[in-house]
Specification:
6 helices; about 15% strand; Rossmann fold; about 160 residues; 5-stranded parallel β-sheet
């Protein structure tokens, strides 16, 4: 299972500054990520909060059952040492995602306190950034069902070539 974690104000996606964040709602993003992960037989548990401690509690609560984290910390990106420490503490691979290109916006948005605790950051690709992050986590932590079924056949073919 992958955690899909969204921080402050992301519950307003689709109506908040659509010229920057687009018209896709958070629920629509969550559904797109669920569908993408379903192809890998990986579930998604989504959570959004405007409160830093609730985000941390959610990650802690699921740390033993999750394979990874897709996180958009929202405004906490630039300030939350606590979220940084949480991600480091649980030891799960995490990808930080931002709908807009934070590096092309105001100066204060160009620095992330959370990103150094993550395996990578995707910014400026809109909702597709969430999909890319989730698919990367699936590929890193799970094998698609079709590969699981094909793996023994490939192994037998390789063994046959060695003879």
């Amino acid at each position: 299972m992958i955690l899909l974690v969204n921080g402050p104000n992301l519950n307003l996606l689709g109506e908040r500054e659509p010229e920057i964040y687009g018209r896709t709602t958070l629920r629509e993003i969550e559904e797109m990520v669920r569908q993408a992960c379903a192809g890998w037989s990986v579930g998604v548990t989504a959570f959004q909060s405007n409160h830093e401690g609730q985000l941390i509690d959610f990650i802690h609560e699921h740390r033993k059952s999750a394979r990874g984290i897709v996180i958009n910390p929202g405004g906490f990106t630039h300030t939350s040492v606590a979220l940084h420490d949480c991600i480091k503490a649980v030891g799960l691979p995490a990808i930080e995602v931002h709908l807009s290109n934070v590096h092309a916006r105001e100066e204060f948005r160009r620095s992330s306190v959370v990103a150094p605790a993550c395996r990578g950051q995707i910014a400026g690709l809109g909702p597709r950034g969430y999909l890319l992050a989730a698919e990367w986590l699936c590929a890193e932590t799970a094998r698609p069902v079709s590969l699981v079924k094909e793996a023994p056949l490939r192994a037998r073919k390789r063994a046959g070539r060695r003879r």
